[in-house]
Write the structure tokens for this entry.
Amino acid sequence: MSVNDTAQTNNFSWNRQVYQRLKLALSIGLRRQIFLAVCDDLHIRNQVAARLHSTLAYPVGQVLYKPSDVGEISTPAYPRLVTLRLNLSDPNPIVQINQWLANYPPPIVGATKQKPGYPLPIPAFQIVGVELLTKQSVAVQRLFLQYLRFSEQYFSNQESSKFLESSILLWVSRPWFYAIQQSAQQFWQSRTGVFTFTGEPTPMKQSRDYPERLSSSRNLDLGNLEQSILDELVNPADNRETTAKDLKFEEDDNLQTQTPVNLGDKLQKAVPSIVNLSPTATQGTDSAARLVSEASRLTVSSLSHISKELSELVIATINTNITQDAEDNWQPQQILWEIEQLHLQQASGESLAVAYQHLGNLYRLRIEQGQSTLENLMVAIIAYQESISYDDTSPQLPDILNDLGTLYWMLYRTPANSEEGQTYIEQGIEFYQLALKLISPQAQPETYARVQNNLGTAYGDLARFTHPVENWEQAVVAYGEALRYRTAEIDSLKYAACQNNLGTAYWHLGQYNQPVVHLKKAIAAYNLALVYYNPEEEPLKYGMIQNNIGTAYWNLAQYEQPEENLQLAIYVYGEALKYRTPTNVPSAYTATQNNLGTAYWHIANLSQTTKEERQNFLQLCINAYKEAISLAQTITGIPLSFDLFATYNNLGLAHYQLVTDNFFNGNKKILSQHLESALENHLQALNGLSQQPEAYQATFAYLVKTIRTFHNELGIQGQNLALSKLPAHLLPEILPKL
């Protein structure tokens, strides 16, 4: 396969995935939704729009029959989706929608002698042809954007436009997408979702090659989903970095949020060994043996009614699980075989949806049990997507949408997918938001709180990529909503976890604006969380939150009451270290020791610190950094949550400051020992900073400064001692600077 072929395959899979999300968003039938579909390839655009139209436009029955006793004849089926081409002479999509509704008002159904009946729902509308505005005059192009800008009046006045009772899908090319984003901000801010399809841009002069008549198309299979997924279930901590004077300090990793919890709590029960989904399946030992025998002979070619991607993935999981129990191998084959039988029997959409959901549940259970392989995660996503496509009215739909949101969040955590991380998080957020629209917080408070908590976590991760302030604010709102329905009385540990997440969101907001306000709110939330963790029963979580509180106090000390807040930070870090021990969580222990060293250095350099206290704090700083480095050197296979080379550099600076302080009263031998330690630690830092030019130059300057101090304090003999410790390749660069 050539490089170009690979790209086409990736685009093909991506477009199917985006189509599935767009179809779901439209099929749910929510009111007042504005979707933007972005596609530069008119051929793909036409195929997708045609597929949407043929799939969603009409109900299963093509005629709606009215009761004969009222003397009325049957009426044509009223569409659920209407496709309109933009009027290029007067490009006002809202007027076009209203005109269509005036010509084709919703018919009244269900009328009897006793009741008047009711109108059918207003359909959704997809608008095509925006890209053709490029051929129109500048005045017409501006008029289109002006119409969109003025659409605010329709949103504020519900009586002015019937289209608000439904949804609108506007197809645009990328240039028009950016133009709307910049020049029609009211319309842009009212959007519900953006769906981007990939493909080569179609030159306008070739647009006639692809008729935009919305006929049925079979050239592009949009019915399935292919996606890449990760194998990690734990949300790693944030790495933060602060510079203070000459010292570059690494803040804590453990301002961490809870992993999106429970891929749907009520689905955590064990999946039965055999589930008879086929209406003709019989019970008994002989029947079960026959089903197993049939399933064991399954191949991709024998599953003609199931998407090839799903079949191949399931078979791949079977091949990779040959060392596991036989039941684990034949269960997915059994379910595939039953799904194929349902297709052959032309079973109802509800039956197929249940079957696909069962397959998703099976793999979801494997993921929860630690088998989070790439294939297992992909099967879970595709199976759930298929389930929704066959029945989007299931009472379990909110749970499935929440599960999909979490699975997409998991895609972001895949190292191989780091470049696509933002897209995956945004997809997860869309699924969480769709789930929330279908959940009544009063009737389903636990489910509502769970999804809101997951949504907050996703917004926090999205803040790593774009608009950090806005996304952390959204996280605060989501966690706050979760806490309205997740109270301490109902579930104290989940309440505490959500309070910890809220504290983390406030901490991050404090890095951008109103630091005092947000940091105090973070500390308050962390303290509320701490109340509900028993240190004897939950030592790791208790220590984690203590560490978070310490970091928030350290941060707050940069803005007000530095001595008091640093003392509090030191005390809380000490409390955290009682539970974050080198034995049970070595990486967390090293992170807290590193933070403790930073706090000691800061308090040592306060103007109100006495000379005796300064010397003592610097020594405590050295001890903490040395402890962090000593244990970090023994940790393998677990990534550190702080910059070890920065800690080496910090330790070198602490040694240097201790002996150059005016109040140092040690002898020459002790002075030399500290300078040697400073030199050695700066050299260690230098070894790891070759790819960071600015940090390398700063550390190199500290190195030169230390060698000069050797000469000033210990004479030429001291300088020679320092030079003897340098690697040969550094001497030509250092000697001219002495």
Q: What stands out?
A: The radius of gyration is 32 Å. Residues 643-738 form one domain.
